[in-house]
Specification:
5-stranded antiparallel β-sheet, 3 domains, 290 residues, 11 helices, 40% helix, alpha+beta
Length: 290
Amino acid sequence: MNLEVGCYIIKPRSGRASNKFHYLRVFIENKNKYVQIDDGIPKEANEDIQILLKSYTLVKRTIYHNSMKKSLEKRLKKACKQKFGVSFKEIEACSAHNKDYLLVKRNDEVFLFIEFNSYFDILKTSIIKGMDGQINIPWNVLVKSEISYWQEKPQFRSVLWQSLDKDEREFYRLTIPPNKVMKKADYWETLYSNPEIYQKGLKALYDTLPSPDKLVAEIIKIGYIEKYTELLIDCEKIDEIKMLLEIKNQSTIKIADQGAQMKEYYVDIYRTTGSGYPHFYDYLMEMKNK
């Protein structure tokens, strides 16, 4: 891996530990690049580290992206004020955010505040940006959707094929019969066995569907209704706050509803249970204080 400065989620390529996530932080100190895995001792990014990192697969790159809409930032901080009973000045001193959620440190614990509609944005990023995505979308979710038939369309096949490298095309040619119609379950399960190709398949779906956001809504509706914790990593939901909007004529649409606009909004609160979000919090605070 040739990694830029930032925070990453990685997992071993093979073995029994292949389902265990680890957290990787890459940072610069005294003009030297260092790598830290989980809560281990930071090590200089030399050839030995590069060899070690080859045994891991990159799951997610948590990009520093601070362009949260001011209205969303205000709502999340208001929910934080209500939850912890602290002033906005105190919240500003102990919080940092990316474009989707607010991280707050209280008593050496990092809490995550996220509004309902941000789950949609996280999933959309996972489809479009691949390694910058948050989660791995199960293939059976696609099969249950009304969209999976799209794999039979020539435009989808063409876009997917053009996105594959030489080795990926060889895998595709050997596992997907060119002149035989596959059941959609078999097709997507086969792609899923190769994470890189599967991710490119998701992106090809998004790029070729007439209504790409329908793909995201379908995946959420089928795979994640009432299970939004799975869109995050190492988080435990501890509360949900229902709050009223302060701005007139503005409303938030809940994905679970049938298009009905609501005058209230919902903020979910999570306790982070791993080292990933605390690492990311530290990184965001460093960027915030520069």
